[in-house]
C-alpha cells in the first residue's frame, strides 16, 4: 500500500511535471507537430525539443482532458518558459506560426510551385499536378485547361500544415475576388471572358517595362485584335518553348505552335503567367490610342507607333543603337 505521505509526494511531483513552467538549455521556441502525429509522438517531439519534462505525464494529462479537444498538427511558437498544461492548450487552441510568402507579378505557375515547396515544404509535383487537375479546377467553379494565370500575385500568410489544395484555392479565390462584378461587366462590354482577360493581362505583364506603360501596351494589343492583326508577342512564343535557354531564335519565331502569335491569330489558349492587378486593369481599361506597334528603348520603356513606317524608324533608332552600344561595350 502507498502511504499517505508517498501519495502526497507523487501528487506534488506530478503537479510539478504538468503545471510548473519548464525549460532546458536545448529548448526550441518553435515546435512543429507533423500531420498524423499521435499523442505519444507529440509528447516525444516536445520532450526532444526540451519543452516538457515527462512524456508519460503529458500523455496522462492529454487523456484526462480529452473532452477539451484534440491536439492539432502544425507549427507553434511556444512562450518561454511554459508548463505542459500551457503547451497542451496551445496545441489545442493556439494560433499556428504564419510564414509570409510573396508571389511577384508575372511569375509562371511552375515557379510559384517552387516557391511554395521551399517556403512551406509542400510537394512541388503535387502542386503542379493540381494546377491541371480537372476535378480541382471544377471545384473552383472554373472551366479552363489549367490554373496558369489564376494564381493571384500577393504576399500571403500561410502556416506550414497547409495542403497544396488549400494554398491553390486561396490564391485562386484571391484572383476571383479581385475580378468582381464591375470588372466582369467591363469584360463583357469588351466581348471578353474572364479567361481571355487573364490571357491578355499576362501578355501585358510580360511585355510592359513599368506599371505606367501597361495601359499603352494594352491599347496596342486591343487595336491589333480589332483589326485581326497578329499579336506578334515574343513572350507568348517563349512560353511555348520547352526548356527555353534565354535567347529567342528567328527559327523559333517561325516554328508553329499554339503560343506562337507571329503565326497564329488572336490570343493564345491560356495565360502565359500570373498577372498582377495593374495588368488586369490595363487589359480591361486600355488607353485610347491608335498605336499598333511598340519597341523597347532598352531602358524599360517603349516607343509606340501608329504605322509600320514609324515603327521601322523606331526599331532602327533603338535596336541599332543597342547593337552599336553592345559592340563598343556601352551599357544601356
Sum up the structure in keywords.
elongated, mainly alpha, single chain, two-stranded antiparallel sheet, Dna Ligase, domain 1, 3 domains, 332 residues
Task: Quickly describe the structure.
The protein is mostly helical and 332 residues long.
For the largest beta-sheet, the strand count, sense and barrel status come to:
2 strands, antiparallel
* Helix/strand class: mainly alpha
- What is the general shape? elongated
Q: Give the beta-strand count.
A: 6
Count of alpha and pi helical runs: 15
Spell out the helices and strands N to C: HEHHEHEHHHEHHHHHHHEEH
Beta fraction: 5-15%
**Poorly predicted runs:** 323-332
Mean pLDDT rating: 91
Query: From the alpha-carbon coordinates, what is the Rg to the nearest angstrom?
Result: 29 Å
Our measurement of the CA-to-CA distance between the termini, rounded to an integer number of angstroms, reads 91 Å
Number of domains: 3
Describe this structure in words.
Helix content is 49%, strand content 7%. It contains 15 helices and 6 strands. The strands form 3 sheets. A two-stranded antiparallel sheet has the order 1-2. A two-stranded antiparallel sheet has the order 3-4. A two-stranded antiparallel sheet has the order 5-6. β5 (293-296) and β6 (302-305) form a beta hairpin. The longest helix has 21 residues, at 308-328. The model is unreliable at 323-332 (pLDDT under 50).
Amino acid at each position: 500500500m502507498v502511504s499517505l505521505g508517498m501519495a502526497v509526494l507523487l501528487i506534488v511531483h506530478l503537479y510539478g511535471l504538468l503545471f510548473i513552467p519548464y525549460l532546458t538549455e536545448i529548448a526550441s521556441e518553435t515546435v512543429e507537430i507533423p500531420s498524423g502525429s499521435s499523442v505519444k509522438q507529440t509528447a516525444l517531439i516536445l520532450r526532444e525539443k526540451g519543452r516538457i519534462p515527462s512524456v508519460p505525464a503529458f500523455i496522462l494529462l492529454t487523456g484526462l482532458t480529452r473532452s477539451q479537444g484534440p491536439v492539432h498538427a502544425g507549427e507553434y511558437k511556444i512562450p518561454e518558459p511554459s508548463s505542459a498544461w500551457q503547451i497542451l492548450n496551445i496545441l489545442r487552441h493556439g494560433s499556428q506560426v504564419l510564414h509570409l510568402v510573396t508571389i511577384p507579378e508575372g511569375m509562371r505557375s511552375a515557379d510559384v510551385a517552387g516557391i511554395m515547396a521551399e517556403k512551406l515544404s509542400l510537394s512541388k509535383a503535387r502542386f503542379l499536378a493540381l494546377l491541371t487537375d480537372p476535378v480541382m479546377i471544377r471545384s473552383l467553379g472554373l472551366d479552363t485547361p489549367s490554373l496558369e494565370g489564376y494564381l493571384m500575385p500577393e504576399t500571403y500568410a500561410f502556416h506550414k500544415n497547409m495542403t497544396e489544395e488549400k494554398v491553390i484555392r486561396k490564391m485562386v479565390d484571391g484572383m476571383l475576388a479581385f475580378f468582381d462584378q464591375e470588372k466582369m461587366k467591363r469584360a463583357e462590354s469588351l466581348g471578353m471572358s474572364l479567361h481571355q482577360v487573364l490571357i491578355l493581362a499576362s501578355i501585358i505583364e510580360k511585355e510592359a517595362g513599368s506599371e505606367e506603360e501597361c495601359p499603352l501596351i494594352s491599347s496596342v494589343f486591343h487595336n491589333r485584335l480589332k483589326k485581326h492583326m497578329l499579336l506578334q508577342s515574343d513572350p507568348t512564343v517563349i512560353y511555348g518553348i520547352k526548356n527555353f535557354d534565354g535567347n529567342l531564335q528567328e527559327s523559333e519565331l517561325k516554328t508553329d505552335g499554339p503560343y506562337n502569335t507571329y503565326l497564329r491569330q488572336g490570343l493564345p489558349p491560356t495565360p502565359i503567367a500570373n498577372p498582377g492587378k495593374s495588368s488586369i486593369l490595363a487589359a480591361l481599361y486600355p488607353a485610347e490610342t491608335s498605336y499598333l506597334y511598340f519597341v523597347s528603348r532598352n531602358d524599360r520603356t517603349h516607343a509606340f507607333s501608329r504605322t509600320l513606317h514609324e515603327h521601322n524608324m523606331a526599331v532602327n533608332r533603338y535596336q541599332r543603337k543597342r547593337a552599336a552600344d553592345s559592340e563598343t561595350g556601352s551599357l544601356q
